[in-house]
Amino acid sequence: MMRIAVVGVGGVGGYFGGRLAQSGQDVAFIARGKHLEALKTHGLTLDDPEGGSVTFTVKATDNPSEIGQVDAIILGVKAWQVADAAALMQPMIGSETFVLPLQNGVEAPLILSENLGPRHVFGGLCYIVSLIIGPGHIRHVGMKPYLAFGELENRLTERSGKMLDAFRKAGINAEIPGDIAAAMWQKFLFIASVSGLGAVTRAPVRVVRSIPETRALLQAAIEEVAAVALARGVALKQDAVSATLAVVDSLPGETTASMQRDIMDGRPSELDYQSGSVVRLGADVGTPTPVHSHLYAALLPMELRARGEVQF
After folding, report:
1. Residue 100 shares a structural domain with residue 143
2. Which end of the chain is more exposed for a tag (fewer CB within 10 A), N or C?
């Protein structure tokens, strides 16, 4: 049994942490406000796409010192919250503790390494469409859950093996890829492009992928991220773009990305760590990113309004 803490009990952290807890792992959830109250009073509720629902008792607190040192920390906060979460996690970090970040984007491991030291950081990514529908209540909307992670140096270690075993015992399709950085960038091709186009059009994926003009823009956005990755020395597979388009075509038609939903609902989003990150990381290596530059610029007013920096 592993001792695992989940920081950020949203659609991602709540789902994967909940599945681990259900399977018998020793899981503690770090939450706050109404979410924490619901977890402590009623437990965690997970809904599945077929309409099933299960509620079970979980350990939850807002004080990491109450948990103490753990084997692993699953980090499910938004990308802009990673640095603050690193400070929050300090009481739970032991000599062998690792943090598994599941943020959209590719910069979370670097931020965590700067704050905690690279020894305590894994690379990680997941594919799932899930969201909070109420305090202590997570709904898996669609997409077969998948999770990939590993040591930043791509070494197979005892601790990564234990984590893999824990996920698989929980019935989660998980793997340790040969190159975790390449795997993260492969997802980044997908999420940054789908999020940006979805947020600008305010349309579900079936609309974006079916109209020739928006599909062409989507493909251009994906190709742009791939170009940045290759310029940065990331070993993407030759079929990275076509494989990404295949994932888009496989999604349930009404799928929307979390960044898109946040922007549409007037909440702070991961814009700076998706479209903005493509622009920023491309500029670092002299790779033009006109599509993502336009997406970022078009969405920035809504992002700044959500953060209280402009009013209109």
Report:
1. yes
2. C
